[in-house]
Each structure stands twice: as C-alpha cells, then as structure tokens.
Amino acid sequence: IYLADLGPARVVETSDYLGGAESGMRAYYTTAPADKLRESLASYMRTEYQAEELTGMEFSNPKDLSQPFRIRLEAARGSRGVTDLGDAAVALFPRDLLRRLPDELVPDERDADMPPRQAEYVFTRPFQTELRYRIVPPPGFPPAGFAPAGLPASRGRRLGPARLAETYAPGADGTVTATLRFDVGKRRNSAREFDELRISAGAIAREEAVLISFEQVGEA
Predict the structure, then answer these.
(1) Could you read off the pLDDT of 92-124 as tens digits, one per residue?
(2) What's the half-sphere exposure (Cβ side, CA atoms, 13 Å) at 43?
(3) What's the maximum distance between 2 C-alpha atoms anywhere in the chain?
(4) How confident is the model at residue 126 (pLDDT cuts 50, 70, 90)?
(5) Looking at residue 118, what DSSP letter applies?
(6) Closest CA relative to residue 130, chosen from 163, 107, 104, 160
(7) Pair 81, 209: CB distance under 8 Å
(8) I want to staple 146 with a disulfide (CB 3.0 to 4.6 A). Which of 14, 38, 67, 137 is the partner?
(9) Cis peptide, bond prior to residue 126, ω within 30 of zero
C-alpha cells in the first residue's frame, strides 16, 4: 500500500495460491472470459480497498504447474489508506483471514440461538492463510517526512483449535510490515472445539479495524 502525498493510496496486491485453493483458481482462470474476469477483479478491489479504479491485472499461466499460481492486481485511489494534511493511516482487518472458513463456522444474526453442536466436525480442506502488508509512507522532502506513529502490539490468539497471529514491525526505510496469519490447525475437531472456533470467529468478524498510522515529522 503506497500512501499518497494527499488523498487515497495506490494498492498493489500479489496473491500466491497453493494446494486445493490453487487447483480451484487454476480451473477458474482457465475458463473465465476476460471481460468477466476483469469485472470481477475490479469489484473485488472496490470492496476490499475502496479503490476507484483497477489499473493493472496480470496472472501466471494457469496451465503451467512448474510454479505456484499467482495473481497481481493494481488499483488507484484506494481509500483504505488515506493521507491528510499532517498524518496518514491504513485500516487492516484481521477478519479478512477468515474468509475461507465454511459458512457454518461464521455465525450471523440468523443463527444466534444455535444450540451447542453434538457431533465432531471435520474440515474437508484444512487451510492456512497469510496476509502480508507492506505500507509505504507518503513521500516527503527533507527535512520533512512521515514516520510510524506508534504501532499496534503484536499478538497471538486461540480460536478453539485454530490460531490467529498478528505482527507489526517498522522498517529502517520508514515502511511498516504487518503480517497476519490464520491456521485452522487439525482437521478433525470435537463438538466443543467447533463451538469455540465458531464463537471466536464471530467475535473477530465484529472487531473494528486495526489502524497503522503515520505522522509528519520535521519541517515542511
């Protein structure tokens, strides 16, 4: 995420797929019409980054099995990262890690009164997801510039048998790297573990954004 000198950010997203998720993406990108594909990806960037325009789209050959399947997207004016006159911020959502959870593990208002589960639960496809954000501060002219304004604390949380970890680290060049990782853990879960994971996932889905903030330092 490249924060602008003023206004919304430029976003470049690169995704690598492995395992079962990779197989599904290869099949989809082999058959999807180009115009529908671009329309779908533009909609994704609008939803994910509040971006006004998809400016770049490329992906590896879905039939080339010698390397992981990769997609690279670029978008302009993404409002998830915004620069004001004296500060800038990017909003990150740990709940984005939970998107591939099966529907029955993501509670909503329609099933708030669901009774405790009685039987074991088995993931047909256990998975790990990692999101790595590299946030580049707005450009500055010496002696002025932007620096991180106190980063969120790194933390690890248990969601029943699953694990969610977050780390936030400054770089020597003024950038910030945020790494969010979710692992569902074992494939077979007890009824109690299912309920623990489901309740914890619901709580994370309701959390507000984690803000990565920058402030102007030096003289403009």
Answers:
(1) 999 999 988 998 888 766 666 778 889 999 998
(2) 6
(3) 64
(4) confident
(5) -
(6) 163
(7) no
(8) 137
(9) no
